Amino acid sequence: MKKSVLLLIVMSPIWVFSQQKITLTSCYELAAKNYPLAKQTALLQQKSTFEIDAMNKAKLPKIDLNAQATYQSAVTQLPISIPNITITPLNKDQYRATVDVNQLIYNGGMIEANSKLKTAQTLTQQQQVAVNLYTLKSRINYSYLMILLWQDQNLLLLDKKNTIVSKIKEVKSAVKNGAVLPASEQVLEAELLKLKQALTENSFQRTKELQNLASLTKTTFEVNTVLEKPRTIDSNGTRPEIQFFDLQQAQIDASKEVISKSNLPKLNAFGQAGYGNPGLNMLNNSFEGFYIVGLKMNWTIFDWDKSKTDKQALDIAKEIVSTDKETFETNNQMQLAELQTEIEKMLIIIQTDDEIIQLREKVVQSSDSQLRNGVITASDYVTELNHLFEAKTNQKVHETQLELAQINYQTTKGIN
């Protein structure tokens, strides 16, 4: 027996050392890293890189190879005949193969403007991912603090169990001496069984909530994982939604820039080299090579105020984003005010809990003395003990509600 106890003492520090410890901040980081939605940030960046690269390809020469063979029912002929001159008519079957090269020289900065727009769109989409990931914090807060509550309640249950076990020993001795009826021992034994049930239920509830936390963070937690008490700080961070609204407006500005560039003149150089029958000389009815080079300019001088109308629509869209931002800030301030009221309320309630517990402890002490002297029954004692345990449990629940309100206040305000 002594060897077994010694082995437990030696092994105990190793078990404690091997316990996994996590913090609320580490859970945030795990969720931001492992949650499936988080992968979209990198994927959106890759998508944007490919799309911008494809846009820049427009600066490179465009080379086309074309070939055709045709047969036509009639060909061009002179409407008159010239004496002593014979002009051979074109063949009705004609052949042509060409290589066409087009090189963009100037397009008013449309490629650069579209690249900036694509970058702005990507940043907005990535920020939307950040907003969606941020909503996980509230769910993580709840699961994390519920686990802490189950841990605290487990300690209370164990403390109550130790009290009952100690009281059973005293009652057994009193029953032997005839000072207490045997029924008192049975009442305490029944209460001990109820405590075992409560401990079992508590353990399963904690495991369930730990699994929820593992799902949110996409990681694995050991059963004996220790959760550290979260620290509340006066955060001066900003909500990701605010940056999302700002990026939306930047995207609208980039769209307006694209519209402004769309009506600027565009200049292209082109060239064509080919071989066919006929070639460029329509009077030469034979195969020959040929080439054409030149410049082409396109300039939309009047677009019926389409650009102006499009910009006006974007201005309205920008105002809509501003109202969305203002609405969010208003609702956010309302949530902060509600949480602050909840915090103040719970502080007062917890203070009252302390007073209730002090009174209940005095009643239990008195009941303990009365039970020893046979003045009250074990049932009376258990009733008062349960009242004390209920008061302590209520205090733990209220403390958890306070911590949850404080953490949610911090989350609602914004965490850096």
TrEMBL record:
The record's subcellular location field reads: Cell outer membrane
- GO molecular function ontology, one term from the record: efflux transmembrane transporter activity
Could you tell me which InterPro entries the record lists for this protein? Answer: TolC-like
State the UniProt keywords alphabetically.
Cell outer membrane, Membrane, Transmembrane, Transmembrane beta strand
Which Gene3D superfamilies does the record associate with it?
Answer: Outer membrane efflux proteins (OEP)
Superkingdom is Bacteria
GO CC terms: cell outer membrane; efflux pump complex
Has keyword Transcription? no
Q: Predominant location of this chain?
A: membrane
Protein name per its UniProtKB record: Transporter
Where does this protein come from, organism-wise?
A: Flavobacterium faecale
Upper lineage is: Bacteria, Pseudomonadati, Bacteroidota, Flavobacteriia, Flavobacteriales
